[in-house]
Design brief:
The chain is about 20% helix and about 30% strand. The chain has one domain: 4-Layer Sandwich (Metallo-beta-lactamase, Chain A). It has about 260 residues and is α/β, with parallel strands linked by helices.
């Protein structure tokens, strides 16, 4: 993964928990799917672990990338406050209509913020027929000059969707994948996020990218835990490109 001028041009990631990552990129600070609430029942989904970094300890947030606003494991109450405190908070057009202060994008839309361009890309939160019930979700591609392109999948479960994103954006060098094989009884037996087998296939669609698994712990409806996810990716041949972030620890991704 090229970082032309040294570590300042390399993404620095700090894993918060669940799908939430703090990313320093091109001089800006991003957060993905902000979740900062304490453990407990959140709208019928049970959170088992608090965040690795508390909201009060965060630096100023330039951009919040919110794959969808309507599930608390991707945007909870405290996370919403973090997002609304960002200079720019992006989500689906449906989410922006529900939450004043968020900016809505449809797949294919691109927005510039300082030195960075952000493109919304397609995602399906479950197989066809179920995704319509779970509601609209998007992923994001982040780019800046002299920095590696970044893909944040959001809660996409479908290999075909991610593979189409990979074909359209072959310059991606860092793929942050929401995994965990989320399952909810009312939404059928198929996973609503990537399971290990699907994540391996998605990683192969991005052959030049480092792979960062997230969304693998902290919620009871994730049916594949962190250990299972990491081991499965290693067994699936992703090991040399796998980035195993530790909670609360800033990690610079150098080539």
């Amino acid at each position: 993964m090229p970082c032309h001028s040294g570590p300042m041009d390399c993404p620095q990631l700090t894993y918060i928990g669940g799908p939430t990552v703090l990313m320093r990129y091109a001089g800006l600070t991003f957060v993905t799917d902000p979740t900062f609430d304490p453990p407990g029942d959140h709208g019928g989904l049970v959170k088992t672990h608090g965040p690795g970094v508390e909201p009060g300890d965060l630096p100023p947030i330039d951009v919040a990338l919110i794959s969808h606003d309507h599930h608390p494991d991707n945007l909870d109450d405290a996370g919403r406050e973090v997002a609304l405190g960002a200079a720019l908070a992006l989500t689906t057009t449906a989410g922006a209509a529900r939450v004043p202060g968020l900016v809505g994008l449809d797949p294919g839309d691109t927005i510039a913020h300082g030195p960075v361009t952000i493109t919304a890309v397609a995602a399906l939160h479950g197989p066809p027929g179920v995704a319509e019930q779970t509601g609209p979700v998007i992923g994001f591609i982040v780019r800046a000059a002299d920095c590696p392109a970044v893909y944040f999948s959001g809660d996409n479960s479908e290999v075909s969707v991610a593979s189409a994103v990979a074909a359209a954006h072959p310059d991606v060098r860092l793929a942050i994948l929401c995994m965990g094989a989320a399952r909810v009884a009312t939404r059928g037996p198929d996973p609503l996020t990537l399971d290990v087998a699907r994540a391996v296939a998605v990683a192969k669609a991005f052959p030049d990218a480092l792979v960062v698994p997230v969304h693998v712990e902290d919620w009871a409806h994730f049916s594949e835990d962190r250990e299972t996810s990491m081991a499965g990716l290693r067994d699936g041949g992703v090991g040399q490109r796998l980035v195993d972030l530790q909670r609360g620890v800033p990690t610079v991704l150098e080539p």
